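Exercise: predict the fold of this chain.
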Amino acid sequence: MVSATKYQILSLTLCFFTLSCSAFTSKDYADALANSILFYEGQRSGKLPSSQHLTWRGDSGLSDGSSNHVDLVGGYYDAGDNVKFGLPMAFTTTLLSWSVIEFGSSMPSQIGNARAAIRWSTDYLLKAATATPDTLYVADPNMDHKCWERPEDMDTPRNVYKVSKQNPGSDVAAETAAALAAASIVFKDYDPSYSAKLLQTAMKVFDFADSYRGSYSDSLGSVVCPFYCSYSGYHDELLWGASWIHMASNNASYLAYIQSNGQTMGANDDDYSFSWDDKRAGTKVLLSKDFLEKNTEEFQLYKQHSDNYICSLIPGTSSFQAQYTPGGLLYKGSSSNLQYVTSTAFLLLTYAKYLSTKGGSVSCGTSTVTAEGLISEAKKQVDYILGDNPAKMSYMVGFGGKYPQHVHHRGSSLPSVRTHPDHIPCSNGFQYLYSSSPNPNVLVGAILGGPDNKDNFADDRNNYQQSEPATYINAPFVGALAFFSAN
């Protein structure tokens, strides 16, 4: 008891001298929230609306799909390139929707912008899923990556590929179903007819994914690999997709599907990361909601495995196995590490919300972790990203006094079409990639790949592992920022 008291006094003393316990105000989090959603305007493909705030962007990809006589205009470029990858775009949409579902009430001033960001993607996913029967369209990255050019200047072939009965892609199709189902919850009260269309399409796409099983990495490996190979297979997406349709529809057949297939689709697997590729941890947290809030006994297993996931993150527990940098950042890998940090912070906060409805906690061997403990761990990660770190650098572009200037992003690094209307050809753009000058267009709200396992960050445009943004890094952070802006 004495040692615990000493620890509390030491913590309070450190807080007093460093102010690190309250590094940011509610307004700071609200500003970061607005930026995190604004970022998606910089990733838009298609005909931009008059309400566009990032005016250095222009229309692009207006003939996408025409080579296959379908309309695939719209959607998002996934990261710093000009490609619309189906799997990460769908995952981004699922996570943006989940952020609004759980924490939308904490973002009243931004809820309209959040819905607009979701709809920009779902409108495209609806096209990709319904253009022709039993197909789902995805895009081609190989030609794009040979150029460094603005999306408005694209002159590379916009080849289109699709998964079908003959070339299945259960992973990308089931993730698309999850995205449409989750979004249907977001729009249920705001736009009921659109919500119904999303859910109806989600069910059809899920049936396609489940009926014609196979990984899109096998069907379209030369296109999607190594960029977004489905390394975890497709079982996790099938269970994830069914879970979201269950949440959106309350259709008993999806509950039955989860009960019948959960064991073979990863219900008993303890997986310790949550990403565009691997949905297992997220599925367990999502399904634990029904057990924690409605006492649905069928989902008690998912609560147990959610506890295992949480315990792996908490230092001092018997199950702790996560790696943290000296500065306290969760560290999973050298390339785009912050994608794991934002998704983890979101799961911590979401699980804390589910637990608090019935005063629950997490059992980690002999240790007990409360909802407040999970919130505290999430806050450390959120604050680190926003600038409470050894480098005193915000890894969100445009937030704080010090943030990266050399972002690995074509549109941001090249002169805007507004200031340089003349076409900049494919190979001519590389001078801007290798330039030491700051990006001329600020990609406000973009969260980059982030520092290494020693808290070091190279503000170098050519260092894509650390300096490239991605839609799926921001998506769960929207929910986390909404929570802290209100709490």
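Check your answer against the key: The CA atoms of residues 148 and 428 lie 8 Å apart.
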